[in-house]
Amino acid sequence: MTYYPACPVGHDKVLGISPHSDISMLTLVWELNMVGGLQIKRQDAWVPVKPQPKALAVNVGDFLEILTNGKYQNIEHRVTVNPHKERMSISAFHLPKFDMSVGPLSEIVGAEVKKYKTLRVDEVAMPCLASE
């Protein structure tokens, strides 16, 4: 669970979470109290993701982009704070097993050139998880 307190002073200068993409296959985000803050980058602009009741936001992660050879692209996103209300969310990160390797699936790539090399999950995930 992630908690972002209201930030009445300087909220326009503070980020809840700085811009990044998730290393996961998929990330599911549940906005508990329907206070927005999640933004995705689209065409070089930050676009707010409006929370929907009884719905999850789904972010494509880096490993899914690799697996699909870029057919599904990861989503750069960030979280901003609200000047008047606290924000609470729960995120579920879905990763392959750490002892696996992930590369473009031949069934998806077909005759195309592979855009990504095969990587061991633990070699990519552990440094990212340790830095958080």
TrEMBL record:
Pfam families for this protein: 2OG-FeII_Oxy
Gene3D superfamilies: B-lactam Antibiotic, Isopenicillin N Synthase, Chain
SUPFAM superfamilies xref list: Clavaminate synthase-like (SSF51197)
Protein keywords: Iron, Metal-binding
PROSITE patterns documented for this protein: FE2OG_OXY
GO MF term list: metal ion binding
Domain of life according to the entry: Eukaryota
Start and end residues of each Fe2OG dioxygenase domain: 1-96
PANTHER family from the UniProt entry: OXOGLUTARATE/IRON-DEPENDENT DIOXYGENASE
Identification of the protein by name: Fe2OG dioxygenase domain-containing protein
Organism: Triticum urartu (Red wild einkorn)
Lineage, broadest ranks: Eukaryota, Viridiplantae, Streptophyta, Embryophyta, Tracheophyta
